[in-house]
Amino acid sequence: MKTLRREFLVATSLWLTAASALAVAEELPTFRLEARDGRFQPETFEVPSGKRFKLVIRNHGPDPIEFESLELRKEKVLAPGAQSFVVIAPLKPGRYQFFDEFHPDTARGYLEVK
Q: Order of strands across the sheet with 94-100?
């Protein structure tokens, strides 16, 4: 009887932990960034300071892209037509640059953190 009760408590605890983690993940503010023809759209966008957020990146172009930011310490390679995301830790107010390493002359942008 004790074994069943312990297993039930462990299972319930694991379920509650997973459910709360999922709820937290769903609550993240989400911003979208699109890559097309060697450019990002939008090139600049505003995000809240002091809060984690999700950046969804979609590659609409015929070539691979690499979202990269040295300041944010993030990089993500996407094949043509692919979509992925990165989660950004809370940031202090300021301007943070990102770029596409495969198109460094044209695909640049900024996060304005306010």
A: 44-47, 108-113, 94-100, 65-69, 74-78
- 67 Cβ partners below 8 Å, 6+ apart? 33, 35, 57, 74, 75, 76, 77, 78, 86, 98, 100
pLDDT of residue 112: 97
What's the predicted TM-score (pTM) here? 0.74
CA 88 to each of CA 50, 53, 103, 107: distance values in angstroms, whole numbers, following the listed order: 11, 5, 22, 20
pLDDT tens, residue by residue, 63-101: 999 999 999 999 999 999 999 999 999 999 999 999 999
CA distances from 71 to 5, 18, 22, 97 (A): 50, 31, 28, 7
Domains identified in the chain and CATH numbers: 29-113 (2.60.40.420)
